[in-house]
Write a structure and sequence with these properties.
about 35% helix; alpha/beta; five-stranded parallel β-sheet; Aldehyde Dehydrogenase, Chain A, domain 2; Aldehyde Dehydrogenase, Chain A, domain 1
């Protein structure tokens, strides 16, 4: 199914998928068709026998099923997919509580599994009501919902996630191709994912024109009504508050010490020495999902890879499979 989405031919499930993509876009305007297809293509490449075997071979997987509740996020299409794959690969039973923002795609996926693999009805289900009768829980949400999760699941073995952001560190020597790949890290899914780069660290006297040229592939985002409204609102607020910013006409570049900007804004900050940035990264490691850079920074990834993680690159750097396979 994932590998056939490019053609969306007329067989039953491809047609259903085409309809569900349209429905998902209608229900959540942040889920554009292109962004939905982008994530489906990603999973189409990742879910093959060799990749799954190479990933799981280093774990002691036993056929000892436990019921695992998965409370999924909805900030981008199929945001909870990796957790579902982890639960199934660990031979556990998944009880999914989808986000109201991503109900259509997750429900489609589960229905597809049930028809193509009837036995999956025994270990994959959706529960839109209050969750009961489960042994473990994986819950992803905002900083506010995290407090609720901590209280509600205090007597359960739990893996709880809250807001994070990603950063990029530049030195000014990046090629046009690298900057265009950085644009993917920034703008894919409108920047709503925790793996989206929300702030860049740059040397003083950095040539901002490089960003203008490298990022312009995504200037079409300004035609999206909800994105434009955010851009226009944030621009108005900054003008009214007499705040300095650079207007690229489809996003705003603003200097800040913070990591988490509003939609349509990319934060930046200057640095003198790389060691200064590394100290910032260490200080804020609980707030940072990933670091994108060509520089010699610990655990950094290359430009264009923030939204293409390997299967063993876990959210919050917490090994989900190990969590599921550990009894206590």
């Amino acid at each position: 199914m994932f590998n056939s989405i490019n053609s969306l031919n007329n067989n039953k499930w491809s047609q259903i998928l085409k309809n569900k993509i349209n429905e998902a876009e209608f229900e959540n305007r942040w889920f554009t068709k292109n962004f939905i297809l982008n994530n489906l293509k990603y999973w189409g490449k990742k879910l093959n026998k060799k990749r799954l075997f190479d990933w799981s071979k280093n774990y002691n997987i036993k056929d000892e099923s436990k019921k695992v509740a998965i409370i999924m996020a909805g900030n981008f299409p199929l945001a909870g997919m990796h957790d579902l794959v982890c639960v199934l690969l660990s031979c556990n039973e998944a009880v999914i509580k989808p986000s109201s923002k991503d109900r259509v795609l997750i429900t489609f996926l589960v229905n597809f599994l049930h028809e193509k693999f009837p036995l999956s009805k025994n270990f994959v289900s959706i529960n839109n009501d209050k969750l009961t009768n489960f042994e473990m829980v994986i819950a992803t949400g905002s900083n506010n919902t995290h407090k609720y999760f901590e209280y509600y699941f205090k007597n359960k073995k739990s893996l709880l996630r809250k807001n994070r952001n990603s950063i990029a560190v530049l030195d000014g020597n990046e090629t046009k191709k690298e900057i265009s790949k950085l644009a993917e890290d920034v703008f894919l899914y409108f920047g709503l994912g925790c793996r989206n780069v929300s702030k860049i660290y740059i040397p003083k006297n950095y040539d901002f024109d490089k960003l203008f040229e490298g990022f312009k592939f995504y200037k079409h985002l300004i035609k999206h009504n909800k994105y434009f409204n955010n851009y226009n609102y944030q621009k108005t607020i900054k003008i009214m508050n007499n705040e300095s910013f650079i207007d690229y006409e489809y996003f705003l570049l603003a200097k800040s010490k913070l990591l988490s900007p509003p939609i349509s804004i990319l934060y930046y900050d200057f640095y003198d020495k790389l060691s200064t940035v590394e100290k910032e990264i260490e200080k804020n490691k609980s707030l940072i999902q990933c670091v994108v850079s060509n520089l010699n920074i610990k655990n950094s990834i290359k430009f264009g890879e923030s939204q293409k993680p390997n299967l063993d690159q876990y959210a919050d750097n917490v090994d989900t499979l190990n969590f599921l396979l550990t009894s206590s």
